[in-house]
């Protein structure tokens, strides 16, 4: 009952078709057109026949079977969503459910609000797979890596340009970059002075630079832009500010913090860039900052 293709494989297949039909420069992807045309070609007896905005209180999107007597499937997305990036991601997510899960869920799937908070929480396999598909379809890795090389130094402006190119949210774009960069970097999403969740690049994680939010709330440092922006209203959406911090502020080591507010101004998005070489092991776990580290993760 499960799809023979992985989420990545489905996205790769469709990216290949788009490259052939539209050329490599086919961004942003028109998910509505792609989902309808691709499903009509591939599954002519069971296509996606409708994609519409609808009143879906409490949900971001849904995949429903057509009513009895009609063939195919419908994708619905919440008509209250204001961000085009979020709409696009939702459509791609539901398209992923159609490709991956419609046989296992013949009555369809309703998807709770893809709140940014949930990005880091324990999703069900099914939701996770739909997100993997959406990220791979909207931001193919080969294209992304051409724009930002794995060893390139970035700032939030550069990543914002990518978000614009792919028409997805800044957070989804940063997560995609974190998934392949060779740099040490941490994304921190905070609200009201507390870290909601954080995600480290592979190298940052390996070298001890992470925040363990599962153990309880972690306050953002008082000296950080993330803390000051929300109280002083000095940060505005799209206006990035950067600040270099000494060791012992965000992490035991020095950090370049870049922070913007979300589109709805309700949370702060901070990208922390760390030195390429991590501090010596004893400084990370048992050195002069150990007390600080213990306090932060207690
Ligand atoms: Zn879903």
Name the strands of the widest sheet in spatial order.
Answer: 6-5-9-8-7
* Counted beta strands: 9
| Distance linking N and C termini | 44 Å
Instruction: Give the biggest beta sheet.
Output: 5 strands, antiparallel
| Topology as a string of helices (H) and strands (E) | HHEEEHEHHHHEEHHEEEHH
- Number of helical segments with 4 or more residues: 11
What is the helix content? Answer: 25-40%
How much of the residues is beta strand, in percent? 15-25%
Count of discrete structural domains: 2
Q: Are any ligands bound, and if so which?
A: zinc ion
Q: Give me the Rg, rounded.
A: 21 Å
Reported CATH architecture of the largest domain? 2-Layer Sandwich
List the topology elements:
Blueprint: H1 7-22, H2 31-42, E1 48-54, E2 59-65, E3 73-78, H3 84-101, E4 109-112, H4 125-138, H5 141-147, H6 156-166, H7 170-178, E5 185-191, E6 194-200, H8 202-206, H9 225-232, E7 241-245, E8 255-261, E9 268-273, H10 281-285, H11 290-297
Parallel strand pairs: 1-3
Antiparallel strand pairs: 2-3, 2-4, 5-6, 5-9, 7-8, 8-9
Bound molecules: zinc ion (ZN).
The site of zinc ion has 6 residues, from helix 3, strand 4 and helix 4.
